[in-house]
Amino acid sequence: MALLRGAGLSLKRWMGRSSAPQLQKDFGDPAVTRIREAAEAADWAGVRDGLTAHPEAADRSWLLWAVGDTAGVERWIHDAVEAEPDPALPLLVAGARYISWGWEARTGARAADVSREQFEVFHERLRQAEEWLYRAAELEPSWVSPWHFLQVSGRGLQVGPVVARRRFEAVVRRAPFHLRAHQQQLQQVCKKWGGSHEEMHAFARGAMLAAPQGSPLGQLVALAHIEHWLSLDDGPDGEYMRRPETAASLLEAAERSVLHPDAEPGSGLVQVCNSFALAFSLAGAKEPARRCFELTRDTVTEFPWNYVDADPVAAYSRHRSSAGA
């Protein structure tokens, strides 16, 4: 218990307090807000300056996704690509936007409910994204981001496990503990994307053990259990989450990540806390669930709560109440 108390005290300094749960906007980062607003205004200079202020070594995937998820970028990014003397950065932004734009065309429906026309647009946009991302990777061989985004486009294009693994390895050679790249590879090895539960759990635990104590990669274990739970029918899903070995696996991962004294603030850590809060709640492990809810400081991340409810704040509040937090 001393470990849990210590973790809570160390994280109070960076997680704000509010009177009621609040959905996190722009990853809680003003830099993300600024770059999104620049993208909405078709202000390439503002987008470029925001990205160059955060070098690849600092992981700017949060910023890139904010731009990529902004509607309308596809209307002006081509001009930026053509105008830049060294086009790696606009190529990267173009690739990020076309991936998001592609998934928008596909929608989040099950494959059986997606029309042939939707799939054609989806694949066309992803193929264009890949062309730009490969060019960016050639121009800037040390950059991580092109390979991270190629993970996402590759899954949509079903490039297969061998190519997908190579793209993941291209990221971790440059940034061994890149959180988003590991999240994408976890999706790649999920049963719903052609992997298996066994492969998914093995990948999650192996990545956690390879990372330093306090690393957010412990989240992968929580996400793997949530994915396993989602794949099961009502009844067996609850039985799976309430198995003693599931709770033990979650506690091991939490104590190596968000509940560890070396857990450090940064983009994504609040999402990790939310992920463990959900997983522990589903497992009926009320005490660690309460601790993880406390560490969120009432900040709700859309993922993973959107897995259980279209209203993430409602899902968070319901599960927090069940845990007695």
The amount of beta strand, in percent, is: under 5%
Succession of helices and strands: HEHHHHHHHHHHHHHHHEHH
| Side-by-side strand order of the widest sheet | 1-2
In terms of quaternary structure, the protein is single chain
Give the helix/strand class.
mainly alpha
For the secondary structure, the number of strands is 2
Largest sheet: 2 strands, parallel
Return the average pLDDT rounded to an integer.
91
Helix content: 55-70%
Shape: globular
From the alpha carbons, calculate the radius of gyration and give it in angstroms: 20 Å
Beginning-to-end CA distance, first to last residue:
16 Å
- By DSSP (H or I, 4+ residues per run), the number of helices equals 18
Low-confidence stretches: 1-18
Which key terms come to mind for this protein?
single chain; 325 residues; mainly alpha; two-stranded parallel ribbon; 2 strands
Give a verbal description of the structure.
It is a single chain. With 325 residues, the protein is mainly alpha-helical. The protein has helices spanning 2-11, 30-40, 44-52, 61-68, 73-83, 88-106, 116-139, 145-157, 161-174, 179-188, 197-210, 219-231, 236-241, 244-256, 269-282, 286-296, 302-305, 312-323; strands at 22-23, 299-300. The protein has a two-stranded parallel sheet. It is globular and about 55 Å long.
